[in-house]
Amino acid sequence: MRPLSIIVAPGPWDPEPWRNEFQAAAEGRPVHVWPHDGSVIGDDPYVICAWKSDPKVFDLYSTPKAVFSLGAGVDHLHVLRSRPDIPIVRVIDPDLTMRMVEYVTFAVLYLHRKIPLYQAEQARRTWRPMHQPAAARVRVGIMGVGVLGEACGKLLSQLGFEVAGWARSRRDASPFPIFSGQDSLGSFLERTEILVNLLPNTPETAGLIGREIFQRLNRNGSLGGAFFVNAGRGETVVESELIDALTNGTLAGAVLDVFNVEPLPEESPLWAMDNVLVTPHVAADSDPEVIVAQILRDVKRLERGEAPVNVVDMGRGY
Ligand code: NDP
Ligand code: OXD
User: Fold this and answer.
1) What are the C-alpha distances in Å from 158 to residues 99, 106, 114, 238?
2) 3 state DSSP class of 224
3) Is the CB of 38 under 6 A from ligand 2?
4) In whole angstroms, what separates CA 93 from the centre of its chain?
5) Is the CB of residue 251 less than 8 Å from the CB of residue 226?
């Protein structure tokens, strides 16, 4: 195959770091940042590297040889569900995984070590030590134990937390117990004090997490309340029910990185809730240097007639 041209469509992200990194690493392959200079591709074979871009980019030319997500999630490529002829490739990379492990570990420790309460005491200049349960008595439950969820669960287990995961399919081997399928969701929730969401946004998971799930969490465990960490996708949560749960005490607190609408609208009550920490979708950033290197390895595979490594099946769980 001729060398592939590369169309980069980074949507809301600053295009410059992506342009620079692709140009530096592409070994002479043409690089076009869309929409500004994508029109010069002609009839060269090409790939698209996209993040939440205008879907028009997928209709511009002949069929791309592959579409690469610039992040781990591929929900922004749902428009391509009707195009099984186009391989869709996602990021699986230790750099991105470690960033997520840092974020989730931070969030769990922040809640476990009562940091929000100490921040409030500090604002009042009050010295008030509170009871601190051992990590081994705190039950963390991770919904979605794929690449990211499993890595987070492993580190939290090493810190001593009592971790369990929930996924679709059964596992023969896992570093911590996995509950699988709808039948075991209740048992998973009833043991869980800190619920971490790392599910992808798919037709099956959209709106899955709401009032019923929050009500089933364990509020009588060592932390004396139930907590929620969302670093997966906002779309998997019914946000109005999350706000209700945080207001009426069903949830004692939350650390939230992803939302139904991003940026989180100024009028959202979540901004002002003193039991909520909001971060602006930064749990695991895509580093252009790392992601571009991974994509170019796959571009070379395509040029040799081989399939890219992390192709996803949009029909199954994405
Ligand atoms: P994976 O595909 O590796 O893992 C997904 C997990 O979710 C798997 O365990 C899978 O189950 C489970 N799952 C999928 N559908 C269902 C379902 N219907 N019911 C139960 N379990 C289900 O994804 P990653 O771990 O790489 O990433 C997870 C998500 O994290 C991404 O899709 C993205 O949305 C989000 N993310 C957020 C970032 C941020 O900065 N906030 C950064 C990066 C990713 P099974 O194991 O049985 O297949
Ligand atoms: C991702 C993200 O999916 O940043 O990589 O959300």
Assistant:
1) 17, 14, 20, 32
2) coil
3) no
4) 13
5) yes
Torsions phi, psi for 31 (to 5 deg): -120, 125
Q: Helix or strand or coil: residue 153?
A: helix
Q: Which ligand has an atom closest to residue 51 CA? A: 2
161 CA distance to ligand 2 centroid (A)?
26
Sign, CA torsion 238/242/166/255? positive
Least Cα distance to 75 among 144, 20, 129 occurs for 144
To the query of whether residue 281 is one of the catalytic residues in this protein, the response is: yes
What are the tens digits of pLDDT across the range 243-281? 999 999 999 999 999 999 999 999 999 999 999 999 999
SS3 category, 8: strand
Query: Is 171 marked active-site?
Result: no
CA angle 215, 217, 219 (to 5 degrees): 95
Is pTM beyond 0.90? Reply is yes
Nearest-angstrom CA–CA distance, 317 and 168:
9
Sheet holding 253-256, edge to edge: 178-180, 162-167, 139-143, 194-197, 227-230, 253-256, 276-278
Give the pLDDT confidence of 147-164 residue by residue, as tens digits. Answer: 999 999 999 999 999 999
Question: What CA–CA distance (Å, rounded) separates 86 from 80?
Answer: 8
Dig out the tokens for 116 from the structure.
């929000």
